[in-house]
Design goal:
Order of helices and strands of chain A: EEEHEEHEHHHHEHEHEEHH
Oligomer: heterodimer
Strand order of the largest sheet of chain A: 6-7-8-3-9-10
Largest interface: A-B, 21 and 18 residues
Shape of chain A: globular
Helix content of chain A: 25-40%
CATH architecture of chain A: 3-Layer(aba) Sandwich
Distance between the termini of chain B: 46 Å
CATH topology of chain B: Methane Monooxygenase Hydroxylase, Chain G, domain 1
Structural class of chain A: alpha/beta
Number of strands of chain B: 0
Radius of gyration of chain A: 18 Å
CATH superfamily of chain B: Phosphate transport system protein phou homolog 2, domain 2
Number of helices of chain A: 10
Order of helices and strands of chain B: HHHHHH
Number of strands of chain A: 10
Bound molecules: adenosine-5'-diphosphate, magnesium ion
Chain lengths: ~250, ~220
């Protein structure tokens, strides 16, 4: 199995505060990796190091190594634009642009230089199908995205992310603002998407991590305490702290 | 074509994989039952030894399925019918594994009977084997296909095999009591019949699991 990311000795500081401490983890290709742990333990911070969104945070400093397809993304000449094209991000609350459904999806491809109408139409259809929104939206692609339900908006944001043909999708608590039905749909979607994309998802919902992921990483106070196949972590974790967290003894 | 997104594709994939393993295990054990009696009837020692060796594969599958169920419970936190399904499977494969053990016992009788002269042609034991195999097969089918009616039908079939067992038992014990030179053989046939009767009992257990899974009720209490 290929590793999409290989993270070695990663430290991250916000000023004097060390938010990530010596993180080592491999993210396998075409699998779902879940990041769990109590609030403030560094899950989002770690996720943002993978597409170098962390660079935009003032005062943040990174040490160590993150290889993406074997290439160090923190070396000086790394093309961050290209990296972010390959590594897409979906956020906690759905954040479509206040534009039409169609425009939301073609925004990224246009930025990357695709202008031909036929090509853009194809992208819209393909991505909306991938997120199971096509049937619901094909007759109203010019309606505002803001008129959709929260769950639909989140699926649109995933479609928008898929439009630039990424290889990895990072998701930061993508269902925490959604109702249970919309959540179940997104979870179902993730399983399908993982056949084609590598997914890393932060979730505070432990059951969700169990249901959808292949590998789970448990963070505590900036440390990665355990990473193991999800069935192993959920049935017989190696670390006593993981055991206590999973079984609800703290959190 | 729009992707058909179900709400729980991962869960369904896992359940499907477990079902497939259960069906493989069922197939193995059904063959073992038929072959065990065939080994006796035809005094086929190689077949008898194959049955004894083949039990390991059944045990391995039981372990694998148990492990799958364990992981399924741990990661999917199943509820309602999914929960009953996982629990039922774990019980059911124990029953299937025990059926496998009975086949090994029957195969050992084949080895013991090898140098004995049969005083009659074997007819009822192969018939019992056929019936109990069919019951096992239908019971597992009823579970996998979630077929309540089939489960009930198999459950009732147990009476027939009990009848036949009683008949065989009386006949063999009668022979054993009155004709000492045939006694050893007759007693062994009676033991084989008992094993086949036990196999049918396990088939009814499996039917009870089907009913429990589908209705949450115990078949013996309706
Ligand atoms: N921009 C920032 N500046 C300073 N500290 C931050 C910043 N972002 C996060 N932190 C701190 O880093 C730690 C990890 O935060 P975060 O990665 O958001 O955790 P999680 O996603 O697990 O809840 C927390 O203690 C948080 O307060
Ligand atoms: Mg966070």
């Amino acid at each position: 199995m290929e590793n999409k990311f290989t993270v070695r000795g990663l430290n991250l500081y916000y000023g004097d505060f060390q938010a990530l401490k010596n993180i080592n983890i491999d993210i396998p290709e075409h699998k779902v990796t879940a990041l769990i742990g109590p609030s403030g333990c560094g899950k989002s911070t770690f996720l943002r190091t993978l597409d170098r969104m962390q660079d935009t945070v003032e005062g943040a400093r990174v040490e160590g190594q993150i290889l993406f397809d074997g290439e160090d993304i923190y070396r000086r000449d790394c093309d961050v634009i290209k990296l972010r094209k390959k590594v897409g991000m979906v956020f906690q609350s759905p954040n479509p642009f206040p534009k039409s459904i169609y425009e939301n999806i073609v925004y990224g491809p246009r930025v990357h230089g695709i202008t031909e109408k036929k090509k853009l139409d194809e992208i819209v259809e393909r991505t909306l199908k991938e997120v199971a929104l096509w049937d619901e939206t094909k007759d109203r692609l010019n309606d505002s995205a803001l008129g959709m339900s929260g769950g639909q908006q989140q699926r649109l944001c995933i479609a928008r992310c898929l439009a630039v043909e990424p290889e990895v999708i990072l998701m930061d608590e993508p269902t925490s603002a959604l109702d249970p039905v919309a959540t179940a749909k997104i979870e179902g979607l993730m399983h399908e998407l993982s056949k084609k994309y590598t997914i890393v998802i932060v979730t505070h919902n432990m059951q969700q991590a169990g249901r959808i992921s292949d590998q789970t990483a448990f963070f505590l106070l900036g440390e990665l305490l355990e990473v193991n196949p999800t069935d192993k972590i959920f049935s017989d974790p190696d670390n006593i702290k993981t055991e206590e967290y999973i079984s609800g003894r703290f959190g | 074509m729009e992707q058909n997104i179900t709400f729980r594709p991962k869960m369904d994939d896992e359940l499907q994989a477990i079902d497939n393993k259960v069906l493989s295990m069922a197939e193995l054990v059904e063959t073992q039952i038929l072959n065990a009696v065939k080994a006796i009837k035809e005094k086929d020692m190689k077949l008898a030894r194959d049955i004894i060796d083949g039990d390991e594969e059944i045990d391995d599958l039981e372990d694998k399925i148990n492990n799958d169920c364990f992981k399924f419970l741990a990661t999917q936190a199943p509820l309602a019918s999914d929960l009953r399904y996982a629990i039922s499977i774990m019980k059911m494969i124990r029953d299937i594994e025990r059926i496998g053990d009975h086949c090994v016992d029957i195969a050992k009788f084949a080895i013991r009977l090898n140098d004995k002269e049969y005083y009659k042609e074997l007819i009822d034991l192969p018939r019992m084997a056929g019936m109990s195999t069919q019951m096992v097969s239908d019971a597992i089918r009823s579970f996998v296909d979630k077929d309540l009616r089939l489960a009930r039908r198999v459950w009732k079939k147990d009476d027939e095999i009990d009848e036949l067992y009683k008949f065989v038992l009386e006949e063999q014990l009668g022979v054993a009591g009155s004709e000492p030179e045939k006694a050893e053989c007759a007693v062994q046939f009676a033991f084989v019949a008992e094993h086949l009767e036990r196999i049918a009992d396990y088939a009814t257990n499996i039917c009870e699991e089907t009913v429990f899974m589908l209705e949450g009720k115990d078949l013996t209490k309706i």
